[in-house]
């Protein structure tokens, strides 16, 4: 057990910055490790991260004292438990749209008496006394609010203890609103903002995807879990580079 930087900062009322991107390897973590981020988002729903690679990536996160936050592809107890056993210290669960679904996440991520996670330790438990209690205390649990059903059921979902972050995901939310691929649409952004405010007003921790156009608003609302992808920075850097090349060669 190495602690959980992201969870500790969140519970202290601080903001956290969690980076994600198209590549999920230990070498990626070694590159971003000294850059100052609190966590790295390992993509297990939309990317090909295999179980035999999770240990290496999460160990690299440990070396740089950043949290390994992995999105799984389903709200399934076996999947969640296996992912945790491989060594990550944060779980992101998609499509949590009811109170029952939120309760299932808590049961799957925590050992008894809080939940019913399968009794096994994986690498984080080796040589650790009272591992079960320490694991329960350190695991970061994030649920995705990404459907209008979840927005409509938000008050009930927010009543569930054991969830650290309620993350409003604009892409899938836009899809369920009928605006496929258009999450910058004002109607979608209004729902995102109002949902984030409801989470913060309820005294719970809000999270969402950010870019330079939305960051200030989210900070003003009180969002603590700030997630961003480095893919956009690479594209912007490449575009700037070629723009400068064009101006130099004309």
Give the secondary structure arrangement, pairings included.
Elements: H1 5-11, E1 16-20, H2 26-32, E2 39-43, H3 51-63, E3 67-71, H4 77-85, E4 90-93, H5 99-109, H6 131-138, E5 140-145, H7 148-152, H8 154-158, E6 165-168, H9 170-176, H10 186-201, E7 205-209, H11 215-221, E8 225-229, H12 231-249
Parallel strand pairs: 1-2, 1-8, 2-3, 3-4, 4-5, 5-6, 6-7, 7-8
Helix content: 40-55%
- Which architecture would the CATH scheme give at its second level? Alpha-Beta Barrel
| Number of helical segments with 4 or more residues | 12
User: What's the CATH superfamily, by name?
Assistant: Phosphoenolpyruvate-binding domains
CATH fold description: TIM Barrel
How would a textbook summarize the main sheet? 8 strands, parallel, barrel
Q: How many angstroms separate the termini? A: 57 Å
Number of domains: 1
Q: From the helix content, strand content and strand pairing, which structural class follows?
A: alpha/beta
Kindly estimate the percentage of residues that lie in beta strands according to DSSP.
Answer: 15-25%
**Which regions have little confidence, pLDDT < 50, spanning 5+ residues?**
none
CATH class assignment:
Alpha Beta
Mean pLDDT: 94
Widest sheet: strand ordering: 1-2-3-4-5-6-7-8
């Amino acid at each position: 057990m190495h602690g959980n930087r992201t969870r500790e900062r969140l519970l202290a009322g601080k903001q956290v910055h969690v980076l994600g991107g198209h590549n999920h390897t230990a070498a990626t973590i070694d590159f971003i490790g000294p850059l100052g981020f609190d966590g790295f988002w390992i993509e297990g729903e939309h990317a090909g991260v295999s179980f035999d690679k999770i240990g290496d990536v999460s160990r690299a996160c440990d070396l740089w004292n950043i949290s390994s936050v992995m999105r799984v592809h389903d709200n399934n107890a076996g999947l969640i438990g296996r992912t945790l056993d491989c060594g990550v210290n944060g779980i992101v669960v998609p499509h949590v749209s009811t109170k029952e679904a939120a309760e299932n996440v808590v049961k799957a991520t925590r050992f008894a008496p809080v939940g019913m996670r399968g009794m096994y330790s994986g690498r984080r438990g080796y040589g650790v006394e009272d591992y079960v209690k320490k694991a329960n205390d350190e695991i970061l649990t994030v649920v995705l609010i990404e459907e209008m059903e979840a927005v409509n059921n938000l008050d009930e979902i927010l009543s569930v203890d054991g969830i650290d972050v309620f993350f409003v995901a604009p892409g899938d939310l836009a899809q369920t609103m009928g605006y496929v691929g258009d999450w910058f649409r004002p109607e979608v952004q209004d729902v995102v903002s109002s949902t984030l405010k409801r989470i913060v007003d309820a005294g719970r921790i809000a999270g969402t995807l950010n870019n330079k156009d939305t960051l200030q608003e989210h900070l003003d609302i009180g969002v603590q879990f700030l997630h961003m992808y480095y893919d956009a920075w690479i594209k912007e850097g490449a575009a700037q580079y070629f723009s400068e090349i064009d101006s130099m060669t004309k």
